[in-house]
Specification:
The structure holds 2 protein chains of 2 kinds. Chain A is α/β, with parallel strands linked by helices. Chain A has helices at residues 3-8, 13-25, 36-44, 122-130, 166-179, 200-209, 235-242, 256-268, 321-327, 363-367, and strands spanning 49-60, 63-70, 83-90, 93-100, 111-116, 136-139, 156-162, 184-191, 213-219, 229-230, 249-253, 276-278, 302-307, 311-316, 345-350, 353-354, 370-372, 377-378, 382-385. The chains are: A alpha/beta, B alpha/beta.
């Protein structure tokens, strides 16, 4: 018996076959769905955005907001707190930087990104000094995990920001107050000088208008006429202004020093670890001062990195492999540039790299030698597979 | 450098085993993956201090070294079995209808039968007879097909010819009465996505038989380790892999496959392509209109797009024991009506009827950092209702159903929500984003009775093009992994014939 003969003898074969035939007769012509998956995904999660600067807003002497509109007229939705990774080409190097969107998700006409000058930051320097309305940029779609999750974050939120770490919070604060969402926010915003505070006037105004938003700026190097709270955002200060920490969820965004200082303070207050969220804040200013960095590899040491089948390049120990690859002209996909998203994953075929704690590398990637190139620093000559 | 024997499009389960099998046979193979990491569904992601398993709950078909199942044998031939620490589960599952039924079924025939009889003593005979039927039926399937009996006939295999295309519900109704019992014995339907009324008895029997005889398995560090191990095997056998690199076109020439064009525009020549992408994308988008086969599209039109899922990936800040979670696999049902649960798969805002809660730490203490717990909470959902959500309302809708699911779990496990440290939501649109499948399907086409391969497998109708993955061989880990092996063997055989 052939296979077909066998099948026809199964009880009910002809009944089900009729069913098959009518399903085919009245079925779907899948050719009409051509492009459907891409169309849906492009509206929600486009890989690339074509943006144009519509306005440059001066926020403080060292900070500007770049208002970005879409070249296509459409911007995808995002969750307040998310970022876009902005591609820039400066000094002959194509690189990118993630910037939190500071405008509210409800503002569908534009994304604001707010940029403060970073010491030695050649990208921020470029954005602040040369970018003008009409300039065009490519970026990723919105991404990132630093956002309010209604399933677990409850109704009482405490935001602790340092400097330009205010940007994701700005989006969340604008969304909550504009939409009248049923949650309350207390913002503790640390800056060195009064003049450094970004969005100061808007934050004050929103706090005056909305009962569910409290704004507490904290200045570490106050002038004589400073009327704000002064010092650092310590446990004592938090206790005083928040009264109770019970049931509250904490969100932190700022430079490494803010986390190093505030995390132990929160712990002292008895805030459980899982009630504290931290935003990734790019690569460390100086990786060689990381506690785990092997002392024998000095800053300025150069290694040869071979890119399998493609060529090689010279890499500085204190620069991430991603940056060295970009300098070498290799296109490596990148998104968070903080070790979190794994888009820049490459396989390390030989050699040693330093991977700072906190990079989110999968256990099986560790086993098979995959690294996140944005959070891997060469400690010897290496070979990688892109 | 741009000439290959075979190009494999997509590094999901089917693409990975296809590529690894081809390389193992010495064929010059290029594996393309548009994402930055291999695996498709068989992957993981990190949040906070957790690494979450995306898709694997219970791996079927493994068996142990002395009694290997078909999947173990295939993975062993690719040299990956010993790369992985396997975790065997003692029980199949627990089914709970809060306040009404709570039963745990062991992964052995006697334990399975006894547990059901203990809970439903009045139906002792029916239970024993039904399980006996499942076993006798599937023993015939093995004898006829796995052992390749040259003389298959209704006289020799009466149960097969009687029940192969019967629906599971009708047979259950003949043997069993209590709706709670029927739910308990057939709750695995959600691993296929078709309720007993639409599920061929062959599929049901295969599932019960395979999980009981070969045991459910998981692996340390999750399914990503298998995906990485398969890529490693592929590379070691001389294969080339490109991540972040999709195919946008399949080239043809002289009436057959001639190569592919990459997203970058680069052209690759190869006389064979195995596609792990959906057949809609493969034939409807990558092939030029003049090579699209009418008959193929007519046949494919009879199949409908299978379900996606709404999933919560949950990290708890306490050990599972603190919350009284004792089983790895827990089906939580709010009622016993599986047809209703199926109907609700097409809704976005129903009250959850049947969910799967997998607590990985029960079988594998290393599934999350010490003192924590990793859980996946899943409800099958068709993608269709999500396609009509306006993009700017998506994030308002995204969390609503998860909130309902957590409320049901909270009723069963008080304090659960307060212990959640991380929770990531994947809607059908999330699955669509990462799998690139129509309507975010995770299982390929629906696997109703009329979709049985008894009525023929899909043939793209152009020489040199083959399929691997859920759309070709049915959804789930074992079928997709096996499908890649079969496609690769078919291609290798053709190439050997051509080369004499």
């Amino acid at each position: 018996m052939t296979t077909k003969d066998i099948h026809t003898q199964i009880e009910g074969y002809h009944r089900v076959l009729d069913d098959v035939k009518s399903a085919q007769r009245y079925g779907t012509d899948y050719r009409i769905m051509k492009g459907e998956v891409a169309r849906v995904l492009d509206l929600l999660h486009p890989r690339r955005l074509d943006l144009r600067v519509s306005e440059v807003i001066i926020e403080t002497p060292s900070t500007k907001t770049l208002r970005m509109v879409s070249e296509t007229g459409y911007l995808p939705p995002f969750e307040a707190g998310q970022y876009i990774n902005l591609f820039v080409e400066t000094a002959g190097v194509r690189t990118s930087r993630p910037y939190s969107i500071s405008s509210a998700p409800g503002m569908t006409a534009y994304y604001d990104i707010t940029v403060r000058r970073q010491q030695g930051g050649f990208v921020s320097e470029y954005l602040l000094e040369t970018v003008k309305p009409g300039d065009r940029f490519e970026s990723s779609g919105p991404a990132g995990q630093f956002r309010y999750n209604p399933l677990i974050h409850g109704r009482e939120l405490v935001f602790i920001a340092g400097g330009s770490g205010i940007t994701p919070f700005m989006s969340m604060i604008r969304e909550t107050t504009d939409r009248g969402l049923d949650r309350s926010i207390h913002l503790l915003y640390g800056n060195r000088l009064e003049g450094d505070i970004i969005f100061h006037r808007e934050l004050k105004e929103r706090a005056e208008r909305h009962k569910n938003f409290i704004y507490t700026p904290v200045i570490s190097e106050p002038s004589k006429k400073c009327s704000e709270l002064t010092g650092l955002i310590s446990g004592d200060l938090m206790k005083k202004v928040l009264r109770s920490v019970e049931g509250k969820n904490f969100f932190l965004c700022g430079p490494g020093a803010l986390y190093d200082y505030c995390m132990p303070e929160l712990e002292k207050l008895g805030v459980p670890l899982h009630r504290v969220r931290r935003e990734m804040f790019g690569s460390p200013v100086d990786i060689t001062s990381d506690p785990g960095w092997p002392g024998e590899v000095k800053k300025g040491t150069r290694f040869t990195v071979k890119v399998k089948g493609k060529g090689d390049l010279s890499a500085l120990a204190e620069e991430s492999l991603l940056v060295s690859l970009e300098r070498g002209g290799y296109a490596v996909p990148a998104l968070c540039r903080s070790g979190e998203c794994s888009l820049c994953r490459v396989k390390l075929l030989s050699g040693k790299v330093y991977q700072p704690r906190g990079a989110h590398v999968r256990a099986s990637d560790l086993k098979y030698g995959y690294i996140h190139s944005c959070a891997a620093y060469p400690l010897s000559d290496c070979e990688v597979l892109l | 450098m741009n000439n290959y024997d075979v190009v494999v499009i997509g590094a999901g389960n089917g693409g990975l085993t296809a590529a690894a099998t081809l390389a193992k046979q010495g064929l010059n193979t290029l594996l393309l993956e548009r994402h930055n990491i291999p695996g498709g569904c068989a992957t993981s992601f990190c949040r906070g201090r957790f690494e979450f398993e995306v898709a694997l709950h219970q791996l079927s078909g493994m068996g142990n070294p002395s009694f290997p199942g078909p999947l173990r044998s295939m993975l062993d031939s690719l040299g990956v079995v010993n790369e992985i620490e396997w975790v065997e589960m003692k029980n199949l599952y627990r089914v709970v209808v809060p306040g009404k039924m709570d039963i745990t079924l062991p992964a052995n025939r006697k334990g399975f039968t006894d547990a059901l009889i203990e809970k439903f003593p009045n139906e002792k005979e029916g239970i024993a007879a039904f399980i006996d039927l499942v076993y006798r039926f599937f023993t015939e399937v093995i004898g006829a097909f796995y052992m390749r009996d040259p003389e298959i006939s209704p006289q020799k295999y009466p149960l097969y010819f009687k029940y192969a295309l019967a629906d599971t519900q009708t047979i259950m109704d003949e043997y069993l009465k209590d709706p709670f019992l029927k739910l308990a014995i057939s709750v695995y339907w959600s691993y296929v996505g078709a309720p007993p009324r639409l599920l061929a008895f062959t599929e049901y029997a295969a599932m019960i038989f395979a999980y009981i005889e070969f045991k459910p398995y998981h692996m340390k560090h999750g399914s990503q380790v298998l995906s990485n191990a398969l890529v490693d095997s592929f590379i070691k056998n001389g294969g080339d892999v490109r991540f972040n690199c999709g195919a946008k076109k399949i080239l043809t020439g002289q009436g057959r496959v001639a190569g592919v064009v990459l997203d970058t525009g680069e052209e690759i020549t190869a006389p064979y392509v195995i596609s792990n992408a959906s057949p809609m994308a493969t034939c409807g988008e990558m092939l030029d209109r003049e090579h699209q086969n009418e008959e193929f599209f007519r046949q494919m039109g009879g199949h409908s797009i299978g379900p996606s899922a709404y999933t919560l990936y949950i990290g708890l800040d306490c050990p599972h024991g603190d919350l009284g979670i004792t089983e790895t696999t827990n089906f939580i049902c709010t009622h016993t009506d599986m047809d209703r649960s199926f109907t609700e798969m097409k809704m976005r805002d129903n009250e959850p009827g049947q969910m799967l809660l997998t607590c990985y730490n029960v079988s594998d203490p290393d599934a999350s950092p010490p003192g924590t717990t990793q859980i996946a909470l899943v409800d099958l959902k068709y993608g269709e209702p999500w396609l009509s959500v306006p993009p700017h309302q998506y994030y308002d809708y995204k969390y609503l159903y998860g909130d309902k699911m957590l409320s049901v779990v909270e009723g069963l496990i008080p304090g659960f929500r307060a212990h959640i440290e991380e929770v990531e939501v994947a809607t059908p649109l999330t699955h669509m984003r990462y799998l690139n499948t129509p309507a975010g399907s995770i299982y390929g086409f629906n696997q109703f009775i009329r979709d049985s391969r008894v009525f023929g497998a899909l043939d793209p109708g152009i020489p040199g093009l083959y399929f691997a993955g859920a759309w070709a061989g049915g959804g789930g880990f074992q079928p997709t992994l096996m499908s890649g092996g079969s496609a690769a063997r078919a291609v290798a055989k053709k190439i050997r014939q051509e080369r004499g």
